[in-house]
Amino acid sequence: MSRLTYQFLSVALILGAAQLIRSYSYDNCIEKPYSKGKIFNCIHRKGNLSAIISDLPSSVTNLTISLDPVVHILNYSFDHLTELQNLRLDHNLLRSIDQFAFHNLHQLHSLNLSFNNISQLKPRAFRGLHNLTFLSLTHNKLKQLPERIFSTNLNLTKLIMRENLLTNFSGIVESVSHLTNLKTLDLCVNSLTSLSHSNVSLPTSLTVLYLCRNNLSTLGCESSFLRFINVLDLSNNSMLQTMAFQGVNLKRVNYLRLRSTSVKVVEFLNISNIDARRVDFSGTGLQNDSLLTELCRLLKRKVEQIKDLQLGFNGITTLTSYTLYYCPQITRSLDLSRNRLHKSTNCLTFLHRHTQIKSLTMEHNLLTSLQSCNNTNNVHFKDLESLSYRYNRILSVNALAFYHLPNIKTLLLNINTIAFLHQKALTGLRRLEELRLDNNLLTDLFKDNFKDNVNLKILNLRNNRISVIFNETFCTLSNLTTLDLGGNKIAHIRPSGFDGLISLSKLYLDGNNLKHIDTSLYHIFQDTLTVLDLQNNQFSFLTETTESPFKNLIKLSDLKLDRQRPHGMTILPHAYFRGLHSLRSLYLTNNNLNNLAPDAFDDLKGLRFLNLESCCVGVVKLQPGIFKNLRNLTKLIVENMGIQNFSKEVFGNLTQLHVLQMNRNVMQSIPVDALQSLPKLNYLDIRSIPLSCTCKNSLLQNWLQNNSNVQIVYLHSLKCQNEPSIKFYNFDTKVCYIDLGEYLFLSTAAVVFLLTVCPLLYVKLYWKFKYSYYVFRSWFSEQWRRLREKEDNCKYDAFISYNSSDEQWVMDQLVPNLEGNGSSFKLCLHHRDFELGRDIVDNIVSAVYSSRKTICVVSRNFLQSEWCSLEIQLASYRLFDEHRDVLLLVFLEPISERQLSSYHRMRKVMLKKTYLQWPGSNCTDPMQAQELFWNQLRRGMRMESRLETEDSTRSDDEMDHLETSDENYYLQP
Q1: Which of 188, 347, 533, 802 would bridge 510 by S-S if both were Cys, CB 3.0 to 4.6 A apart?
Q2: Is 675 helix (H, G, I), strand (E, B) or coil?
Q3: Residues forming beta bridges with residue 851, ordered by sequence position
C-alpha cells in the first residue's frame, strides 16, 4: 500500500469517526425519553420529508410525522430506516407518493396516512411492505384505487379508507380480494352507491365491514357476497331500502347497524335470514308503542331471549308498562340513549317483565327528575348492576329513588343539573361501588347521603357547587378508595369531615377555595393516601415558618400544588414537605414563589418527578444544594422559571436524572461541568434560552456537539442571543482556543534554551549586562545626556581607576608625577573627587565621562575588584563601541596570560592597545626606567581621544583573531 493511499484511508477513518460521534441531537425530531433510539416524534416542523428525517438513526421503530408541511414523499425516502415498524404521516399536506417511497421498509407493521390531501395512489405505492398489517387512508381525496395496489401486502388485517371520495366498490373488491388475512375493511363516509362487483369476492377472512354514511340505495351484490361478515355497518345510508336485502345471506352476521336508513325493520326481519338478536335497532324509526310492540312480537316469535337490545336514536318519548311487554326476555343490556324521554321512568316499570336485565343505559334524554321507588308494588330488579342517566336534565333525585335496585354497583348521574339530592336518595344501595355525581349543581352534602353505601369505592363529585364538607359526611364509606371533590367551592372542611375514609387512596380537592391545610384532616387516611391533588386553590403563606401539613402522610406518592389563586403561593415555607419520604411526583407549576429555600426539598428523598414550570416570579437564582437530597429524581421540569444560574453546586447531586427540561429561562451560559455531573442524563431541552455565542460557551458548544449520550432537543435550531442569524452549535470558537501542544512545546523550548544559555551569558557577558544596566539607569535619569553634552569640555584630564590596596602607589608616585613636576594634569580620584552622598555607580559613570582619559592601575587586587571591573568596562565601551582612545593600562606587577584568561574584555584591550608596565626594583637602572615610564604616560594622556587609525575599524571578531597572535606591544622603559 502506497503512503498516499494510507494517508487517504487514515483521513477517511477520522472523518468516519467524527460522523459516528456527531451530536446526539436531531434537526426536526425528538426522541421519546427512555426509548433507546426507537421512538421519535417530528411534529410542527418545517421543510420537506427528507430534511425532517435525514438525521434519524437506523434503529427507529416508531415514527410520527404530523402537522408538518409535507407535500410529497419521494422514492427511497425511508431507505435508511430499515427497522421501522410503525409510521404515522397523518395531519400533513400530503398530495402524492412515489411508487418506491416505502422501499426497504420490510419490518413495517402499521402505516397511517390519514388527514392528508391524497387524491391518487400509484400502483406500486405500497409494494414491498410484506409485513404491513394496518393501513389508514382516512380523510383524503381518493376517488379510486389502482388495480392490485395491495398485491404485496398479504399480511394486511385492517384497512381503513373512510372519509374519501370512493365510488367504485367493484374496484375496491378487486384490490383486496387476494388479502387472505384481511379482517376489517372500513369504507364509511365515501360516495358508494351499491355493492355491485365483478366475478371476484371479498376475502373469506374479512369479518368486519363498515359502509356507513355512503349513498347506498341498494346492495346489488350476490346472495353469498356477505356470507362471512360478522359485523356490518350500513347506518346513515338514507336511501337504502328494505328490499335491498332480499336474498342476501346474512346468516353469520353478529352485529348489524341500520340506523338512519329507509329500512323498515319489521319487514326486513321477515325477508332476511339474519338472527334477529344481532340487529341494532337504534335509529330505525321505532318512535311509538305500536311500532315497538310490533317489533317485540316479531322478536318473540323468533327467539325466547335476547341479550342486548339497542333502541337508541328512535325518538321515543314515553315508555309504558306495555312498551316492551311482548319482547323476548332481555338478559344483559338495554340501551335507550339518545331518545326524547322526558317523563319520569316510574321506577322502571316498563321493564317489569325483564327482571334479569343487568345494564340499563338512558343517556342523552330529557329526563328531569327521579322519583321515589319505595312502593311495595314496585318491581325490584335484583340483577341490575349498572344504570346510567348521564346527559339528561335531571334537577332532583328524591328519597329512595333507587330502592328497587338493591344490587346496583355502578350508578352514573353525572352531567345533569341535579341541584337537589335527597339525604335518602341513595338509601338501600349497599353494594354500590361507583357513583358519579360530577358536573351537577349540588351545593350541600349531608351525613345521611351515603349512609348505606358501605361498599362504595369511587365517588366523583367534581364540578358542583359544594362549599362546605360537614362533619361525618363520609363516615360510613370505609371502603372508599377514590374521592373527587375538585372544581367545587369548598372553603371549609369541618374537623370530622373526612372521618370514616380509612381506605382512601386518591383525594382530589383541586379547583376549590381552600386557604390552608389542616393536618388533623388527614389523620384518618394517613396510612393509605397515595394521591393528593390541591392545585388551583388559595393557599398562601405570610411567613416562611409553617408546620408541614403532610408530615404524617407516609404513603403519599403524588402531590399537586399548582396554580394557587389569586397570585400563587409566593412563599414556600421551610420544611413544608417534611415527612413525605414516599413522595414520587410533585407539581408546583404556575405559582409566584419569591424564593426556593435550600432545604425546600430535603425530605423528598424518594422523589422521581418534579415539575417547577413557571413556579417562580422574576429572575431566580437557585440556591446551592437545593436538590442535594433528590438523588432518585429521574425527570425535572424547570421551564420558564427565570433561572439565571445553572451550576454544579445546584444540579450536581441529581445522579439519577434522565430528563431535564429547562427551556424558556434566562441563563446566558451553561457550565459543562454541571452537565457532566449528571451521569444518567439522556434528554435535555434548552430551547428558548438566550445562550451567548461567546468564548464562555465554547466548551458547551463542543460538549453539545460531541456528547453521544444526551439528546439535545433541536440543537441545530438554537440561535445566538445577539446574532439570531448565527446558530449556537456552529458559531466560531477558534479565537477561544490556544493550541495547547504548541504552547507547551514553545514553553519547554524556551525554558531549555534559558537554562542552557544563561550560564554561558553569565560567564561571558556578565559585566556587559551589568554595565548596560547601569548605563540604562544613568540614561533614565538624563545623566547620560548631560554627560554626552559635556564630552568635548571635560572637567578632568584623567580618571584614575585603582584598587584601594594600591592607593599608596597612586598617591606617592602617580599623583605627584601627573599633577606636579610641571605636568599640570587634573586627575579624578575616588577619595578626593567623588560627590558625597551620591550613588557610587553614578559617581563612576560621571568620572569616566567627565575625563578625557581613564587610567587603570592594574594589579592582582584590581582584577578581583567588581568596582574596578566596572570602571574598565565603561572605559573599554568608549574604546570599542564609540571609537575613542580614552583608555590607558598601567600594570603595577607582572600578570601571566593564564591569570588574564578570565578577563576577556581586558585581553581585547591589551591586543588592541599598547600598555605600560611599571618598572620594578629588578631593573638595571630603576630611576631611568621610571622617568621613561612617566614620559610615555604623559604623552598618552596628551593624545586626541578620536581614533584615526586602521584599528578603529576592526571588528570584535578581528580582535578575537588577534588573541592568537604574538603582536603584543609591551612598552618597557
Answers
A1: 533
A2: helix
A3: 796
